[in-house]
Amino acid sequence: MLHPSTAERLVPENIALIQKGLRRRHRRDVVFRSLAHVAVMFALGVLVMLVVVLGVRGIGGFTTYSVPLTITFPALDPADPDDPDYDPIEDYDYPAVLIDATIDAIGAGVVAERSRETNKALIQLLGAFAADDLAILTNNDRTVFGTQQTYPIKLSDIAEQFLKGNESPKLSDQQRAWLTALQQNGLIDEAFNRSLFLDADSREAEYAGLFGAIIGSMWMMLITIMLALPLGVLSAVYLEEIAAKNAFTTFLELTVNNLAAVPSIVFGLLGLSILIQTLDFPRSAPVTGGVVLAMMTLPVIVVATRTALASVPASYREGAFALGATRLQAVFNHVLPYATPGIMTGTIIGVARALGESAPLIMIGMVAFVAGPAFSATQPSTALPAQVFIWSDLPEQAFAERTASAILVLLLFMIATNLTAIILRNHYDKRNS
Question: Which pLDDT tens digit goes with each residue over 302-361?
């Protein structure tokens, strides 16, 4: 025991040391908080910059331009008595009436000379399938012919880019003057580009849409969740709650953990060699892509589910055993419900990763041109990441714009998927609390 005078002498020194240590801790806490704030602000800044850049580049893809042309339809040719199967509608000269209507809209004084080159240049301002669109709009109604009707005709991608302020080398000075005249005459209508969501892919940018890719992604996500979620949860339950701890289960755990870090293209090679070449799965089909993405997502769900199961207190198991429950009853009736929020978190991570992957889809051929949506999981299709890859490789300025628009749609698709999973996770979390 220290002498009282010694204790009195040491107390101020101890207090000074404690205060010095507290100040050092406080400084470290301030530095850590500052670094955390900087990290969060940096992440938000990168996210905002990404959205802004994509928005600036892709916002034009959500708008489209058309011109209301007042078209004078010449009367149909009379029936040919020598050919009872002759149908004058099938041979109707839609391009000619479109050219005449376009000249009337621009102004005869602006279009100085009618020639073959002039007609070709006028047609280039309209959509590549403008004549087919006009035939669809008239719906082969015979009462239309011989009258004057007004229809909105979609403009071509080079005309749209000019109206959006993007110069195209494919556009001549004469065509620029014609478009300017249409603008001055108030005949350019701007509208929301519904074709981006209602049409499938096309070689012509003004008709290219994401409907087929969205349907393909929905098919794949459905197959991925149906395969990966139950298999992942049951595998994690076996490894965490049922299997004995031995060399075999240790090997399984290491294998699953390593598979969670395998690059996605390896799973694409696996799908190509086993599913397509060995098991004869259909190439470029959502069922093949869904199985490949399920294999990629499965380890992530297993790891997350095991972590969620391990976080459930042992008292839940012991209480169930005390009431006479079997191990399976304790796991499925008591442990698993409380681990559901953590399982949903793992599912969110796995599905979000799968939804944005393009490398495995490239390996199984889902980057082929598909002109229509897949009405079943075995039909050829593409997906949103693959569609972005396809469009990004095309040289037209309009496709570059639509690539950014497709990325924005993919981000919205991922946010909607994650939001749904988060709502389900919070629902189970509240129910267990």
Answer: 998 988 888 888 888 888 888 888 888 888 888 888 888 888 888 888 888 888 888 888
Cβ partners under 8 Å of residue 151, min gap 6? 68, 69, 71, 134, 137, 138
What is the model's pTM?
0.83
Sheet containing 148-154: give its strands across. 148-154, 63-72, 189-192
3-state DSSP call for residue 189? strand
CB 388 within 8 A of CB 407: yes
The answer to whether residues 281 and 275 touch, using CB atoms and an 8 Å cutoff, is yes
> Which residue from 272, 261, 346 is spatially nearest to 296, judged by alpha carbons?
261
Does residue 281 contact residue 291 with C-beta atoms inside 8 Å? Answer: yes
The three-point CA angle 348-349-354 to 5° equals 95
Instruction: Answer whether 258's CB lies under 8 Å from 194's CB.
Output: no
Q: Are 203 and 193 within 8 A, CB to CB?
A: no
161: which 2 tokens? 């880019």
Do the Cβ atoms of 289 and 360 come closer than 8 Å? Answer: yes
**Using CB atoms within 10 A of its CB, is residue 164 exposed (0-12), middle (13-18) or buried (19+)?**
middle
Q: pLDDT tens-digit profile of 106-143? A: 887 777 677 788 888 888 888 888 888 888 877 767 77
| HSE-CB of 227 using CA atoms within 13 angstroms | 20
Whether the CB-CB separation of 97 and 73 falls below 8 Å is answered with yes
- Residue type at 224 in one-letter notation: T
Cα 412 to chain centroid distance, Å, stands at 7
The packing angle between helices 286-310 and 247-259, to 10°, is 120
Print the SS3 string covering 224-272: HHHHHHHHHHHHHHHHHHHCCCCHHHHHHHHHHHHHCCCCHHHHHHHHH
* Residue 306 β-bridge partners: none
